[in-house]
Amino acid sequence: MKERSLSRRQFLGRSALGATAGAALLANPARVAAQAVGAKTGDLPDLTIKEVKIFVLDRKRIAGGPTNQGYTLIASIVTNSGIEGNYTLATRYWHPNWSNLGWLEFAKGACVGKSVLDLPQLTSQWVPEKRRVGQSSYASAIDNCLWDILGKAVGLPVYRILGAYRNRVMAYASSQHHATVDEFVQEVQVCKAQGFNGYKIHPPSPGGGHNYKLDIEVCRAVRKVAGDDFVLMCDPVGVYTRDEAIKVGRAIQDLGFIAYEDPLPTKDIEGLAELARDLDVPLHIGEFLVSIYDYAEYIRRGAVDVVRFVVDNIGGISAGLKVAHAAECFELECAPHNWGEVFDHAVHFHLELAMPNNAWFEMTVPQGTGDRPYMKDTIRIAPDGYVYAPTKPGLGYELDRDVLDKLTVRIDR
Length: 413
Known about the structure:
By secondary structure, the protein is α/β, with parallel strands linked by helices.
C-alpha cells in the first residue's frame, strides 16, 4: 500500500492557501495583465463589451468538427476598441446543467455594456445555485473569450498573464476508443515513432458495453510492444464496477502504468477512496466534476491522486486556475483534460504552462484530429516530444477570417 503524506490527506487547513494562491490575479486579472507589460489599467484599450454574436458554420465542410444541431458554432465577444475574443460552443460532456443552446441570449444579458476589466464579476460561481447545482457552460465560454480579449489587449499569450512557469510541456498521445487489440498496438508504435514519450489507452469500453478482461489484454499487448520504459496510462472513462476496477488496476500496476483515470463513475467517491488506498498506480479524477466546489471532498476523502478538470465544466480558465492552485496546496499534481479542436486544447494548455504541478500535455491522436480549416494555427508535438507555448496574444491560435467567412452560413446576434 502506498504511503500517504499527512499534508495531502489530513492537514485540511491548508485548503485556505488554495483560496489565496493567485488571489491578486483572479481578483483583478486586468491589472495584472497591464502590469505584465509595464502599463496601468487605465492605459488599456476600451474593453467595454459592445457586441456578442455566434458564427454559425457549415458543418458539412468541416470534417470532424464539433457540432450543435448540424452546425459548428464559434462564440464571439467584441469590445468597443474592436478586440474580439473567441471560443467554440459545443456539447462535449453530458451533465444536468450543460447546454450551450441559449448561450447567445445569456451572454448578451451578462456582458453587453460591461467591461472585460470586471471579468471575475461576469463569470463567478459564488452564488448558492451554482455552488449547489454546478456551473453552466454559458459562463465557461464567456470566461474563455474574455481571457482571449485580455491577452490581445496587452499583446501577450494568456499563460504569460496567468504566470508563466514554463514555455513547453511534454506530450503524451491520447488514443481513440479502438475496437481491437491490434489497433492499439499499431497506434502506440506510430506514436513512439512521432516522438511521443507516453500513451494513454482509452479501452474499447463505451458504445455498447465493456469487457474489462479485453481491456487488460489491450494494456498487456501495448506494454509489450511499447517497451518497459515507455510511459503508459489507462482511462476507461468510468465504466467499471468496483470489482472490475480493482482487477484492472492491479493488472496495470504490475505493468508499470503511471496513471489510472476514471476507473469508476465519478460519483462513487467511496469506491474511489478504496481504490486509492489499495492501489499504487495514481488515480486521475475530476474530468466529470461540474463545479470547483466539488473538488474539496475528493481531496479530503483521499479519492484522488492527480486532479483533472475540463474548463468548460467548471467555469473556464479562471476556474481551472483555482482548481490547479488548490491541488498544489495539497501537494497534488494537476493534469487538465485536453481533447477536441484547437481552442479546446488551447485553454487547457495555457493553464498547464502556468502551473508548476503539471507534468503532461494530453494530445489527441491521430495528430491533426483537432485541426479546423478556419484556424490558421495547429498544435503539434516538436521532435523532442514537447508542445511549445504559442507566441500570439490571447489564446494564441488565430482564426483564418477568410476561411471563416466562406464557411459561415449566418451570424446570430
